[in-house]
UniProtKB/TrEMBL annotation:
<dbReference type="GO" id="GO:0003855">
    <property type="term" value="F:3-dehydroquinate dehydratase activity"/>
</dbReference>
<dbReference type="InterPro" id="IPR001874">
    <property type="entry name" value="DHquinase_II"/>
</dbReference>
<comment type="subunit">
    <text>Homododecamer. Adopts a ring-like structure, composed of an arrangement of two hexameric rings stacked on top of one another.</text>
</comment>
<dbReference type="Pfam" id="PF01220">
    <property type="entry name" value="DHquinase_II"/>
</dbReference>
<feature type="binding site">
    <location>
        <position position="77"/>
    </location>
    <ligand>
        <name>substrate</name>
    </ligand>
</feature>
<dbReference type="GO" id="GO:0046279">
    <property type="term" value="P:3,4-dihydroxybenzoate biosynthetic process"/>
</dbReference>
<keyword id="KW-0456">Lyase</keyword>
<feature type="site" description="Transition state stabilizer">
    <location>
        <position position="20"/>
    </location>
</feature>
<comment type="pathway">
    <text>Aromatic compound metabolism; 3,4-dihydroxybenzoate biosynthesis; 3,4-dihydroxybenzoate from 3-dehydroquinate: step 1/2.</text>
</comment>
<feature type="active site" description="Proton acceptor">
    <location>
        <position position="25"/>
    </location>
</feature>
<dbReference type="InterPro" id="IPR018509">
    <property type="entry name" value="DHquinase_II_CS"/>
</dbReference>
<dbReference type="InterPro" id="IPR036441">
    <property type="entry name" value="DHquinase_II_sf"/>
</dbReference>
<keyword id="KW-0672">Quinate metabolism</keyword>
<dbReference type="GO" id="GO:0019631">
    <property type="term" value="P:quinate catabolic process"/>
</dbReference>
<comment type="similarity">
    <text>Belongs to the type-II 3-dehydroquinase family.</text>
</comment>
<comment type="function">
    <text>Is involved in the catabolism of quinate. Allows the utilization of quinate as carbon source via the beta-ketoadipate pathway.</text>
</comment>
<feature type="binding site">
    <location>
        <position position="114"/>
    </location>
    <ligand>
        <name>substrate</name>
    </ligand>
</feature>
Length: 173
């Protein structure tokens, strides 16, 4: 069984999708992508929430919230943060939610610095150059292949309870 609760995240300037450099990013808008994503997940019996921001800290806060919401998988287009944000990488690693990195354009066929990603080595999968179809492919992958993590979270919280008990025993009162 695949992911049942997916979060779709888009970083800076992707609110301009559809009008922004259409020769690179095409003419589909972000709302088109988000609406299609919700429909795709719901026809598979899953829930999908979406969020876009131009602000790094706001994106990080949204990722932190995803853990409380029990999100099983994140599909993220970090946009320009891909090439520069250690903080965003750390946020994804911090919540320990599997994620798929997606880029509309083929970042490897553009400026050299776009080939550098702070996310790819930790992503479940990386998609680029498929245009907005990449979002559909990423969501399909999550629906089919990313496992629901309820059991893992229980194990992790048990471990932390256990660990904090050990610490309580050791620390001076
Ligand atoms: O904003 C973006 C969009 C992008 O992530 C893409 O979807 O192709 C590629 C990035 O290099 C760029 O900064």
């Amino acid at each position: 069984m695949g992911a049942k609760n997916i979060l779709l995240l888009n970083g800076p300037n992707l609110n301009l999708l559809g009008t922004r450099e259409p020769q690179i990013y095409g003419s589909t808008t972000l709302s088109d992508v988000e609406n299609a994503a919700v429909a795709q997940a719901s026809s598979a019996g899953a829930k999908l929430s979406y969020f876009q921001t131009n602000h790094e800290g706001v994106l990080i806060d949204r990722i932190h919230k995803a853990r409380e919401e029990g999100v099983d998988a994140i599909v993220i287009n970090p946009a320009a943060f891909t090439h520069q944000s250690v903080a965003l990488r750390d946020a994804l690693l911090g919540v320990n939610i599997p994620f798929v990195e997606i880029h509309v354009s083929n970042v490897h066929a553009r400026e050299e610095w776009r080939s550098k990603s702070y996310f790819s080595d930790k992503a479940e999968a990386v998609i680029c150059g498929l245009g907005v179809f990449g979002y559909k492919a990423a969501i399909e992958f999550c629906l089919e292949h990313i496992k629901v993590r309820a059991k893992l979270s229980t194990t992790v919280s048990k471990y932390y309870n256990h660990k904090s008990k050990i610490n309580q025993d050791k620390w001076p009162q």
